[in-house]
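so the lab meeting is tmrw and i was supposed to have these ready like two days ago... anyway. pasting both below. for each one the top line is the aa sequence and the line under it is the structure tokens. i havent really looked at them closely yet so no promises
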Amino acid sequence: MLVNMNDLLLPAGEGKYAVGFFNAVNVEMARAVIETAEELNAPVMVGTAEVLLPAMPMERVAEYLIPMAQKAGVPVCVHYDHGLSFDKCMEALKLGFTSVMYDCSTAPYEENVAQVAEMVRICHAMGVTVEGELGHVGDNEGAGKLLNPSDFYTDPDRAADYTERTGIDALAVAVGNAHGDYRFPPRLDFERIRVIAERTGLPLVLHGGSGISDEGFRRAVQEGICKINIFTDLDKAGKEGIREGLRAGAGSMMGLMPYEINAMKAVVKEKIMLFGSAGKANRPES
């Protein structure tokens, strides 16, 4: 069942659990996510991000993800993550994505507000939900690595102003998290999460979920995180599954696929159970 982000995150906030968002840049990833969600009767979000489009163009992603979501036995939101340009977000809308993140976090504050507010106006007219980001979640390495991540943490007072003026449905926060592999265990600012949740009244989003400890996830959810993004762990599991298949003597892509999918399903199951969303796939009211 294809739904938007509010159908999943508003109940998550009330129930003190989080919904996993998993990037799926091929059909095997999509199967691993949606089949596991169905097995666990869990709501789930799946999609892609602008930085991943070189691996699989958005149009191709839409061709497999949206029909799979429509046929799923649980609520599935198809989300375009970290949209960096207005045009690409519009493309996602035209292709049938039910949620977009318009990431203007590196722009000056007033520009971030104005651009995201315009995106919200357009998307809400089409029944599509919008995620914004305030502060900036950097990378653990490479060009996106921040020398002093705390300089870019989300300010709770500004977060309240930002959410009111933009009208977003969910807010991505920078609280000690980062994209990619963590070299050292991250130290999340749980008090900051709690205060931002109180002052905004919105579902909060934790990017860079791969590598955070189980206890860190549980505490973050209790303080107001309702959506957690996972890609690196899923990607690594798929690669290891293929290696296992090769070691087992699988001699074709068809023979390797079950190993790849099963390895990724194990990660999705672990995250869904950890986030507390298993058994929470209630149909939204029509």
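ok protien two:
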Amino acid sequence: MHIDVSDIIDLERYPVNRIENVFAGQCRDAYRKTGICLLEGFVRDSALERLVVEVQGCLEHAFFCDGSHNAYLSESPACADMRHLRQERTFVGSVPYDRLPEYGHLNALYLWDPLKDFIGFVLDKPEFHRFADPLGACSVNVFVEGGVHGWHFDESEYTVTLMLQAPEAGGEFECVPLVRGTESEFQTVNAVLDGGRENVLTLPFTPGALLIFGGKQSLHRVAPILGKRPRLVPVLCYAEQPGMQNSESVRKLFWGRTGPDPDALAGLP
């Protein structure tokens, strides 16, 4: 079944298929200045309903991780000032790429070259490719009741996510933009981990929004989830070199296996 991506994305509002225009330049400028490019209403309402139903049909394949880490995701502190930092809890599930419908709307969106090229333009990447990982190319983060992603900096430079379904309560995406590498970095991180809110920005969870986020430079978290409705967020992964994949240890950590499921639904082209 052929899916017209113009039925998924509001290309009149967000002409991502034409990167040599004012809109694309504005998105790049916003990301450069803040580490955030948030496009609310990116997915049409009619397509959003189909995407939610599609992802809900895959939730039985979510693999859940429940562990702790410090804000730098490291075994040792970043410096002497960080030794007293408490551990942050992360409890989240992920549906792997090979469990998404091969001919579904989410896969059609991920495989659409103009979207890839637009994201690469915003990130200022001269060369940009879809991730070649059979499990992590495009996955879906699933936060159920009690789910949380503690304060941290990402190991990867950026993330690209779609906001599909908000929980009944909680689950706010909170961040301190571009704090890493500043003179006040450790002071700010300590203050936030101690409950300070002075520098914290809360991004609205608007179903249908696309978010390009510089998570390596920005401290961030997903607040605890309340209620029975899961928070659903697809993660679209890319790389600057072709053929890039996660290590087997990363696949085992996030999806409980190292290779494709022989009964899988989707696969990389």
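from a quick look at the 2nd one: The mean pLDDT is 93. The longest helix spans residues 22-34. will dig more after coffe
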